[in-house]
Amino acid sequence: MDVQQFHYDNKIVKKFLYATIFWGIIGMTVGLLLAFMFIFPQLTDGISWLSFGRLRPLHTNAVIFAFVGNAIFAGVYYSSQRLLKARMFSDALSNINFWGWQLIIVAAAITLPLGFTSSKEYAELEWPIDIAIAIIWVAFGWNLIGTILKRRQRHLYVAIWFYLATFVTVAVLHIFNSLALPVSALKSYSAYAGVQDALVQWWYGHNAVAFFLTTPFLGLMYYFVPKAANRPVYSYKLSIIHFWSLIFIYIWAGPHHLLYSALPDWAQNLGVTFSVMLIMPSWGGMINGLLTLRGAWDKVRTNPVLKFMVVAITGYGMATFEGPMLSLKNVNAIAHFTDWIIAHVHVGALAWNGFLTFGMIYFLVPRLFKTKLHSVGLANAHFWVGTLGIVLYSLPLYVAGFVQALMWKDFNPDGTLVYGNFLETVSEIMPMYWMRAIGGTMYISGMFLLLYNVVMTIRAGSPVTDELAEAAPLQRVKSGRVAGEAFHSWLERKPIQLTILATIAILIGGVVQIVPTLLVKSNVPTISSVTPYTPLELEGRDIYIREGCVGCHSQMVRPFRSEVERYGEYAKGGEYVYDRPFLWGSKRTGPDLLRIGGKYSDNWHFNHMYDPQSTSSGSIMPAYQWLIENELDKSSTEAKLETMAKLGVPYSDEEIANAQQSMLEQGIEIEQNLYNDPDFVKSYEAAKKYAEENNMDFVEMRNREITAVIAYLQRLGTDIKIVQPEEASASSN
């Protein structure tokens, strides 16, 4: 049989590796800055684009899509060519994938700090960037599938199965979660509202973790661990069970992020059931990875690549044990909204994704430059510094999570809350935040050790741009199953059928959960007193979204005695029917705000935004002084109302036409309320007089952003208060 010679494309692998390291340092640096903001809230005071609320989504997007995303592409492009015995289908598509992805990351790095966000967790980017993501992702999938179709290796190895499932599922998740109606070039409103939006978002959010942070990395594990250990995968049968059970079960688990919320009970229970089942395929994969090292454990002592990979797989096992445990309602009641969840997420991110990426980099760089790693000692030092960093990061946050939960739920014998002031909890866990910052500093220090080691390795070597390889061409065989051929063996040589079956497996759970919630009205009972936001309240809500307030404040009071006592009546699904997007939140660094309306005066909110510590001693909330200085942009208010009306919010033509007058009247009312504070009157009138004397423009308080924010905050939770008890009870059943 003739043997064909061809070349692997290493250029694209190197580009993605360089991008992985670069964006990894950037993303982790932003994360470290955020960690120090908990300790020094005024660290970036007065700089709107460096405020916590705007930087937090930048950190998560940079780490997930820039650092991990580029690592995925590097590993997939390297391993796929070798597993399929073929150069990538198209060098042009490879480069479109690379440069397009980097431009998307740059777009995110610009728009998120400027406040252009959809506020959906892990999907904050606005609609034009969402479209770009879909296009570049299709280019990646086209390249991968094209390579599979021209392969010289008949059977598809398990890593390729995971790559295919990743491509299909991420495409489905991204498209359906990102459906929105644009208002302008960088503003849109979600196609879903309230409860439905929450379900679709966490169907996406949980499975972004599953199919972006997990399945592609499992594919990389199945390739790089056997290669680094020079051992075959422990069990082929276990890999089959692992793959199909994982992709089928994972897609159902999203609702466990919404337990005790206004989501219908049947959806919550489905999420819990499948989340508990998820431990079996997850641990099956972990066992398959670790047992691949049988007979090679002596190498782990000296080989830093294997060290990183062993801890990565162990971290995966820990995170995938903890995930199902956190989905149990009694555990979730303790952990949700606390720093426990932050610890859980970072065990997965820092150990599983981070360490597997580091191991892959140390494996690939010497091979791509025909040399040895510059310093095994430095790589081992990176391993130990990084491992200690993970421990110092996560353990204090587990403690903080328990402290928060216990303090929030603690009652006096007379039935009052022991810690009625939310800030008492914040003060108690500050030492844990210090330790988290120290752990994060150690982890990123390891990144700089890696950078130095990689640069020195590259300098010592010579690049292998197009690596020569040879393999026999693929001979056509009978399309049906050969006698004695197992079904899965047949499927492994049929990539189209494999992809179709994987697509069906991931669609079932999504369809069963989402379609009834969207179409069956009884899942979201309406409440007659709940009305759409006024134009000024809607503008205030958009500013609230812009500033990332949802990153620290929830708007979901769960039906617990402690929460009802602290915040007020528990949340009803009908309260959120006009919320596009939903703002239930996933972390309480500050208190829940669902019932904040009317609780404090307009002056209190004004002072709280200007100087949080003046109203709340010990607060770690940053100041939002630009809200008080900035003029409210009312130019697109009518367009916003028209877009909402197209989505089903009952704004009449008259309300839209009178939007400017409505905002002015409500703004004047709030401005007059602010005059109740003598200090406000003194400073405001002085500023006004100074402007007049110096012929400067002066923006009346009624036309400033703070007024819109106050209007929104004072609206929150007030609809439900005017409902008669019998009606509220009937509506919630």
UniProtKB/TrEMBL annotation:
Similarity field: Belongs to the heme-copper respiratory oxidase family.
Species assigned in the record: Psychroflexus planctonicus
Keywords: Cell membrane, Copper, Electron transport, Heme, Iron, Membrane, Metal-binding, Respiratory chain, Translocase, Transmembrane, Transmembrane helix, Transport
Assigned EC number: 7.1.1.9
Recorded metabolic or biological pathway in which this protein acts: Energy metabolism; oxidative phosphorylation
Subcellular location: Cell membrane
Catalytic activities: 4 Fe(II)-[cytochrome c] + O2 + 8 H(+)(in) = 4 Fe(III)-[cytochrome c] + 2 H2O + 4 H(+)(out)
Signal listed as a keyword: no
Full protein name: cytochrome-c oxidase
UniProt cross-references to Pfam families, sorted A to Z: COX1 (PF00115), FixO (PF02433)
Bilayer-crossing regions: 16-40, 60-78, 98-116, 128-149, 156-183, 203-224, 236-253, 273-293, 305-321, 341-365, 377-399, 433-452, 498-519
Protein topology in the membrane: Multi-pass membrane protein
InterPro entries: Cyt_c-like_dom (IPR009056), Cyt_c-like_dom_sf (IPR036909), Cyt_c_oxase-like_su1_dom (IPR023616), Cyt_c_oxase-like_su1_sf (IPR036927), Cyt_C_Oxase_1 (IPR000883), Cyt_c_Oxase_su1_BS (IPR023615), Cyt_c_oxidase_cbb3_su1 (IPR004677), Cyt_c_oxidase_monohaem-su/FixO (IPR003468)
Originating gene: ccoN/ccoO
Main location: membrane
Occurrences of domain Cytochrome oxidase subunit I profile (ranges): 16-463
